[in-house]
Amino acid sequence: MTNPIYVAVDTGDIDRAEALARAVAPHVGGLKLGLEFFMAQGPAGVRRLTGIGLPVFLDVKLHDIPNTVAGAMRSLSGLGLAIVNVHAAGGRAMMAAAREAMDPATKVIAVTVLTSLDATDLADCGVAGAPADQVARLADLTRASGLDGIVCSAHEVAARAAAWPGGLFVVPGIRPAGSDIGDQKRVMTPQQALAAGAGVLVIGRPITGAADPAAAAAEIAASLS
Fold first, then answer.
1. pTM of the complete model beyond 0.85
2. Which of 33, 36, 106, 195 is the most buried (most CB within 10 A)?
3. Which DSSP string do the residues of the chain spell out, in sequence order?
4. Which residues are catalytically annotated?
C-alpha cells in the first residue's frame, strides 16, 4: 500500500520546514505545504522541499475569476507538484480553467467544505443544510468540471468515494485517537478515514507538534499497515 500520509508543514521558516520534512520523510507519503509556507517562501521554497524527493501537495485553495486562477496555475505549473487545489465554490468555469492551465501530471482538486466549518457556520454564510449536503453538491460540480478529486472531511468521504469511482479524496482534520482536535470540527482517526475511502490523509499537529515528529509519524504509519 502506498503511504497515504501527507504531513502538513505549516510554518514560514524554511529551515524548520526542511528539517521537519527530512525527519519524517521515511515515514510519510508526501508533504502538504500551506499558505503560511507559500506566502513566506514562495516558489523557491517549494522547489527546495520538492528536492527532498517526496510528492508535494500545494494547498493554496485558489478562488478567483477563471482568468486569474488560470494565470496562477500556469505560474505554479513548473514546480513539479503532485497535487494543487482550488475552491469548488469558484464555480465550473474557474475549475475547468485551473485544470487546463496546470501541468497534466499534477492532480487538481477542489475544496468542498472546510473541516473547521459545521452546519451553523454554513448557515452564517447563507448555505442551508448539513455540511454533507454541500459537499455532495460541490463534489458533483468538481467532477463535472474535469478535476481529479476533492478535499472533504472524513465524515463525507465514504459517500463521495462511492459516488465517484476513481476520484482522489484528500482528507484533512485527521486526528489519532486521544489527540486534541484544535480548531477542527469534523475529524476522524487515520484508520477510520482510510477505511472510509480517503486516498490522502493530511496530518499536521499530531506529527509536527509532537516532541519527536519522526516517531509520531512512524507510529501513525504503522497503525495503518
1. yes
2. 33
3. ----EEEEE--S-HHHHHHHHHHHGGG-SEEEE-HHHHHHHHHHHHHHHHTTSS-EEEEEEE-S-HHHHHHHHHHHGGG--SEEEEEGGG-HHHHHHHHHHS-TTSEEEEE-S-TT--HHHHHHTT--S-HHHHHHHHHHHHHHTT-SEEE--HHHHHHHHHHSTT-EEEE--B--TT---TT-SS-B-HHHHHHHT-SEEEE-HHHHTSSSHHHHHHHHHHHH-
4. 61
